[in-house]
Amino acid sequence: MTIFSIIFYVSIGILLCILYFHLSNLLFDFFSKKYSNESSLRAFIFIAPAFIILLIYILYPVVETVRLSFFDKYGRDFVGISNYIWAIKDPEFKRGILNNLGWLLIVPTLSTFFGLVIANLADRIWWGTIAKSIIFMPMAISFVGAGVIWKFVYDYRGPGDQQIGFLNAIIVSLGFEPQAWITIPIWNNLFLMAIMIWIQTGLAMVIFSAALRGVPKEMLEAARIDGASELKIFTSIIIPYLNQTILVIWTIITIVVLKIFDIILAMTNGQWQTEVLANLMFDWMFRGGGDSGRGSVFAIVIMVAVVPIMILNIYRHKQEEKI
Amino acid sequence: MLKLIKLVLAICVSFVFFNTSANAGGHYTGPDLSGQKITISGPWLAPEDGYMREIAAIFEKATGATVEYGGSDSFEQQIVIDIKAGSPADIAIFPQPGLAADMAAIGGLSPLSNDVKKAVLDNYAAGQSWVDLATYPDQNGNDQFYAIFYKVNVKSLVWYSPDNFADNGYEIPDSMEELIALTRQMAADGNTPWCIGLGSGDATGWPATDWMEDIMLRTHDPSVYDMWVSNEMPFNDPRVLEAMNFFGTFALNDKYVNGGSKAVATTDFRDSPNGLFTSPAECMMHRQASFIPAFFPEGVEAGVDYDFFYFPAYSTKDLGKPVLGGGTLFAATNDNQATMEFLKFLLHPEPNEWWMAKGGFLTPNKNADLSKYSSDTFRKLGEVLTNATTFRFDGSDLMPGAIGAGSFWTGMVDYTNGKSAKDVADAIQASWDAIK
Amino acid sequence: MKKNLLSSFLAQFLLLVFVIVWIIPTFGLFVSSFRDKDLLAISGWWTSLITTQVNEIHRTVNMESQIQENNIYIIKENIFVKNSKKKISSFGITSKNINQFLVKETATLKDGSKLTVYENGDYIWKSQKPFKNKKGRRIFITASSPPKFTFDNYKEVLFKEGVGQAFLNTLTVAIPSTIIPLIICSFFAYALSWMKFFGRDTLLALIIASLVVPLQMSLIPLLSFYNDIGALFNISSKSYPGVWLAHTGFGLASTTFLLRNFIKSLPHEMMEAAKVDGATHYDIFLKIILPLSIPAFASIFILQFLWVWNDLLVGLVFLDQVPSEIIITAKLRELLGSRGENWEILTTGAFVSMTVPLLIFFLLQRYFIRGLVAGSVKG
Q1: 3-state helix, strand, coil in chain C (%, to 5)
Q2: Helical axes B206-219 vs B222-230, angle rounded to 10°
Q3: Which spans in chain C are helix H?
Q4: pLDDT (tens digit, 9 = 90+) per residue, B358-390?
């Protein structure tokens, strides 16, 4: 496609959208002068597109996925809960759950921890802003791009060859055997998680950085005058003060991690026992003709895992609105 | 004036050219089909679509019919939609038999006549194998012959550097026993015999399935292979385990494979043959299909820097010369005179020889003139095919997608990573049971 | 005081360690994308400034180039095709012993002919009998190759590998997929914060709930929905407008949520006043809310744009994987699969895919961070 047709396509798409709002509102203005009842019909114009899109893209898929999970691989015949029974017996499903659990335990915890430590360090050092920029940068990179970056770091060559992967080069220079990092079962999960931690720490850091500014200066100074060590201040003043923020960040990263997919697809494609639920779902959907019933079961499991966080979110939001 | 001279010259030259080409080889002559039109749809895009149209032009010229070819890279989805909607082209070019069988089962294909079948039996090396691969049950469950193979590839090949063999005094093995002995010899000399790489992105593991299939054909009767592919014989049958362990004697031995067994699953299959061309050589041999030279390093030359030999069979087992390969099938989706004639036309040497001269084309047709191949390498590849006593299609392509493009691949990766053959085969069989 | 200095030093050191660990992977990629591909394949990027030792195989020319001088047959040529900066240190004539001879030494071959190789690649091969070789003889050399940086990788990746086209495709996906939800969500957010209608609270709860619905869940149903629509109108089910709408759908909840929080915080006296003057909601929206919300728009624009640019799954599922539609992340994944260890292609491809996000990141970091913080502290 040429650049011109791209520009053409893009402008048409955007124009149509603007036209809808403008024309419908003008029409409404025109008619509402005759029958004046501003609010509810106007509200309808304002929310209709968004509502329809949400209906099609969020609500309908949720309902449909639930339905499909009870049907056969073509989505035609009702098969009861046999897809679920299959899943429970499937060893890959079990491993997927275990791997997902590992990700959920390790990635949010370490990202939050590193983020907090770095935010705290950087705020007290003159070149802290630059440091923060660098650590935040991975947030802008796609998971696949990050995959390439780290695949390069983990690259493996046979023992006799010159290593071009950074990690193996270090290992070899220390006198050890090079390792094919992403193929060592169980441990390879940690090497994949490292990528996610590398990305998400930046997010935790900037949010903590913003929150740290809210810590009352007097409290810190009072503690310093009392001769408390920096570590002591960190653990007994800053951490308790940031309690809420820690929880929020932990939740955000947990949601991201629960849906982890791209990194594994790019790095191992679920081989060497690194599969997680989202990748299993993708495989069952698209590999070898696909099985929408079994694929949907994985989607439902992910969904169910998110529900508690969802309820917590709505509850918290209601609390805030009240204040 | 100058223009006129040029024009006259051009006409003369083209006339001469025409004449010489007209004198070469046997010509296809067909019935008069003037006014009839056939359409062909297939997966080929440039440059193959151009070749296909030129082949069609030969047919058009001989019969007066018109032929149209349309290529699509989503052919496999498109043909299903078209056949189900009842509006397919007249001829469909299937990249693998599985899809053709599926279409036959829903009544989407027209069976071919017995003389076409006989022509394949008579003219193709290992003719019975080619007929069997194109015979599927129709919608009533009756076996019918549906398609002819045109443009095939060979997998049972071992690539090597003639110079490296000469430097070390190695001979090309004629039997599996000799190949095993040669492998030992190389390791004893301090050379690494094999380069094996299973990496292929999403499809990581498939090169090992080719190994398995080649070994199965060399250790057991072809009927065992067929039972294995159709799962009449379970995947964890001792004969399959035996083949897997045989692959393991090469792939799991750190001395036999470049980079050690750890590197097998992580090395990309496209990069793995590079070891043949490094200084010093990282490996001596590489078993891979006829398409692999496309991935060799820039500037290496066929017949000079590399060559191949047939992945040999056991001399002690009476299994002939089995060849593993793949190929495209032409099947009729509408039954009319011109369509059937076009399929017969493809069995004639002329369309085969024409494409042989272009390269990238192999044919099992014994009547095709081998001297028409574009290079010696292709000629020798063609000989492997025409010398075959048994031909079998890539088994993983014939298995259901969840196995042949799923658990078989991942299973072989697990195997090279240290899992036992028994556990791997059990897991593959379990996944097969799960989709039944 | 001394203790403070020590702790400050410790803090600086610790932070430096973090920074180095965080920057090294990206830096390695960046350096590698400019390295010569042959060097990249055999040496780590950290050695890119020093001379690398390479082993190569070359062939002599064949018998046709021989000349005869005083009954001696001579073949004389240079090993390297074009002027090379490589310096040969040793050579060999069989793969079994690739550095048997130092440069300028003379090797005696089996047939009695003599071969000498010089540092710059010149070689002389002399024989008493005429040469009969149809193919060139192999010479194995060990040479030192000076550092070499090049833009060739970029040329290759952008024009030959189709990454350039994928880059444009991604733009075609990303711009409407950012602007359309922005337009739709701005009206939606306005309605949610300032208009009264039945079911407003439920709708808000629904949006917060959909913030966490896993995207993967929507794929199967939406794809079959798209297929049905495609079959109904006999059009392709995978198209750019389809992806725009999909991204709009998936991004709408979070953009609306962020914007609503912002609009809600605007002083409502202004609106009350406008209303008294007889302005409609549309007027208020266009003339008051929109101009005030520009900083919020900037943040949301960046978040959504980056999200779409970096997305893989939606592009993978809702677009055909053909050159005219494939997006850059999908292309990169394809290259990971098809170009395995051609690191010059992968590193460069990855870097090309990162240019836009990094540009936005460094130019508009402030808005980016503001958006993230707003989204998280509230969300």
Answers
A1: 60, 15, 25
A2: 140
A3: 2-32, 37-42, 152-155, 163-194, 200-210, 215-233, 240-264, 269-276, 281-284, 290-292, 294-310, 313-318, 328-338, 343-363, 365-378
A4: 877 888 888 888 888 878 888 888 888 888 888
Q: Do C341 and B201 touch (CB under 8 A)?
A: no
**B77 strand-pairing partners:** none
Which domains does chain C carry? 52-145 (2.60.40), 154-378 (1.10.3720.10)
Q: Using CA coordinates, name the residue in chain B closest to A284.
A: B402
Give the residue on B whose Cα is nearest the Cα of C57.
B279
- The residues, any chain, with a CB within 8 Å of residue B235's CB and separated by 6 or more, are B228, B425, B428, B429, B432
Read off the tokens for B5. 């001279």
Q: What is the pLDDT of residues C200-259, one digit of tens each?
A: 888 888 888 887 777 877 877 887 788 778 767 766 677 888 899 899 998 888 888 888
Q: For each of the domains in chain B, give its residue range(s) and CATH number, in order of start.
A: 28-154+324-393 (3.40.190.10), 157-323+396-435 (3.40.190.10)
How many other CB atoms are found less than 10 A from the CB of residue B407? 27
Domain A90-141+186-322 in CATH 1.10.40.60:
no
Interface residue C57 vs chain B (CB under 8 A): yes
Q: How large is the ipTM?
A: 0.85
Confirm or reject contact between C17 and chain A (CB < 8 A): no
Indicate the residue of A14, A118, A300 with minimum beta-carbon distance to C18.
Answer: A118
- The model's pTM is 0.82
Q: Helices B238-251 & B421-435, crossing angle to 10 degrees?
A: 130
Considering only the beta carbons, identify the residue of C98, C336, C338 that sits closest to B280: C98
Residue C319 tokens read as: 């677009």
**A266 touches A148 (CB < 8 A):** yes
Distance (Å, whole) CA B12 – CA A147: 61
**Residue count (chain B):** 436
Cα(A180)–Cα(B328) distance, rounded to whole angstroms? 38
Beta-bridge partners for B143: B137
